[in-house]
Amino acid sequence: KRKMNMNKNNTKLSTRALPSFIDYFNWHLWICHWFKDIMNMIFKTDTGGDLTLDEILKNQQLLNDISGKLDGVNGSLNDLIAQGNLNTELSKEILKIANEQNQVLNDVNNKLDAINTMLRVYLPKITSMLSDVMKQNYALSLQIEYLSKQLQEISDKLDIINVNVLINSTLTEITPAYQRIKYVNEKFEELTFATETSSKVKKDGSPADILDELTELTELAKSVTKNDVDGFEFYLNTF
User: Fold this and answer.
1) Contact indicator for 72, 43 with CB cutoff of 8 Å
2) CB under 8 Å, gap of 24 or more: what pairs does 82-91 form?
3) What is the pLDDT of residues 170-190, one digit of tens each?
4) Mean pLDDT of the chain, nearest integer
5) How far is the CA of 63 from the CAs of 44, 138, 141, 181, in angstroms?
6) For 174, how many CA atoms within 13 A lie in the half-sphere containing its CB?
7) How far apart are CA 120 and CA 132, in angstroms?
């Protein structure tokens, strides 16, 4: 009876120990397959079949291959990080430039808005002023045209006045000469009459006496005009 109880106890112990061992074995086997799959996925490395972790660790060539590929991955990661840093700095610079350009564009837009506002306010006023100036210019052109006609009439009248002044001036200059001519003419007529009368009266007189009288009359005629011969000729030519 005691022996049977011991067999039962041993059976219970064996039954309890079996799952623990199987779980440990399965876990170990799963670790090996997982490591193999990871190696194949990351490094595309063939571990040579179903190798245990110990066998993989003892395979120096495989470890060297994995180590090299790890270094390559590390270098690639460093390059990616460096490029990421460069891209970050470049992105910052680009963002800074974009912000500056945006600020410039905002300033330009603000100035354009201000110009548009000024144009909206002052353009109608400027247009109205220009319209008034054009009207004033048209009125001035009419006045200038009227004044031009008046000046032309004045000019024509001045020409007539100038002619009249010239005629009057000429008459004024001619008058003394005319008076002298008239005076001389009268004197010569008197002289002629006196000579004829004297000739009739002294018909019986001597020729010498008649010659003396004619000489005296000639000297009288010269004395009338001798002081104004040049002026007389000038006024005579003018007349």
Assistant:
1) no
2) none
3) 777 777 777 777 777 777 777
4) 69
5) 13, 105, 108, 158
6) 10
7) 19
SS percent in the chain: helix, strand, coil, step 5: 95, 0, 5
Rounded Cα distance between 161 and 16, Å, is 158
The gap from C-alpha 236 to its chain's centroid, in whole angstroms, comes to 75
DSSP 142-185: HHHHHHHHHHHHHHHHHHHHHHHHHHHHHHHHHHHHHHHHHHHH
Residue found under tokens 């100036």: 133
Spatial distance between the Cα atoms of 137 and 31, rounded to a whole number of angstroms: 106
Q: Which amino acid is at 198?
A: S
Rounded Cα distance between 194 and 186, Å, is 12
The distance from CA 128 to its chain's CA centroid, rounded to whole angstroms, is 24
C-alpha to C-alpha distances, 140 to 136, 146, 147, 158, nearest whole angstrom: 6, 10, 10, 26
Q: How far is CA 7 from CA 3, 11, 83, 109, in A?
A: 6, 6, 71, 100
CB burial of residue 36 (10 Å; 0-12, 13-18, 19+): buried
Q: Which of the four pLDDT bands, split at 50, 70 and 90, describes residue 197?
A: confident
Name the residue among 39, 85, 91 with its Cα closest to residue 63.
39
